[in-house]
Amino acid sequence: MLDHAQLATLAAVLRLGSFDGAAARLGITQSAVSQRIRALEVQVGQPLVLRGSPCTGTETGLRLARHAEDVALMEARALADIGADQPGPVTLRLAVNADSLAAWLIPALSQAEAAQPGLLFDVVVDDQDHSADWLRRGAVMAAITGTATPPHGCDAIPLGSIRYFATACPAWIARHCPDGVTGPALRAAPCLTYDLKDRLQAIWLQRHFGEGPPPPTHYIPSTEGFIDAASAGLGWGMNPEPMLRDAFATGRLVPLLPDAHLDTPLYWQVSRRMAPALAPVTAAIRAEAARVLHPAERHEAR
Hints:
The protein contains 12 helices and 11 strands. It has helices at residues 4-16, 19-26, 30-44, 59-81, 98-115, 131-136, 170-176, 183-188, 200-209, 223-231, 245-250, 279-292, and strands at residues 49-50, 56-57, 90-96, 119-125, 142-145, 154-168, 191-193, 217-219, 237-240, 254-255, 262-271. Strands 3, 4, 5, 6, 9, 10 and 11 form a 7-stranded mixed beta sheet that branches. The termini are far apart.
């Protein structure tokens, strides 16, 4: 049998990246952390932690740390179901896309924590077409993705579509599109791109103006930064509807083409093994998604 305290210590070291950080989190000495890790490594017969700044895990170490966090969450859920006191907080690691995190996810996480006090979230941000890879590798327990097909052993629950509009400030449009918003004008003017994985601007351009060269771009890896950069006249970009209401109402931003939105479907993918323990989180995310997102009518690719 593996020792739960040793597994919890391994998970803390790899999550926090250091022995002293794990010691502070667990309320024990750094020497005790080292002893627990060493004892666990002796038991399994191989290294589990690669010492460094930060500390990282071997393949076996990462697998055991994920097992420890899975067990802790399942135990916490079981104790909550029977009305027993929980021994301490447990961490749920999720992979989500940046726009969902900024536009609608936080209230859902708050509702989930209220339903299961002591639940801590470790959120990994990645493009919605890549967040499922974290779940496939076993690096997270669940993910918000743009992929309808889940990894083996997981389920995909449709959440709805997040709606995007191509937006810019009036001064940018007057400067770069004096004769109207056209394909050549947009391909010659600067746009905004989140990162190299972000294809929303390219998809919208192709859909409405056909094939052509990519426009010059500013890389702004922040959903809020996209709004600010567009408002400041730095470029045009695809922004999520839930974050545009104030900007549209004040005229700070306007759509480049009226009603030319782009819908991207989202899915909540979760391990079947962890689904019962994640039931409060799943319920909260589905409820908030139903309130904010649009019904998914068709599949869009980012």
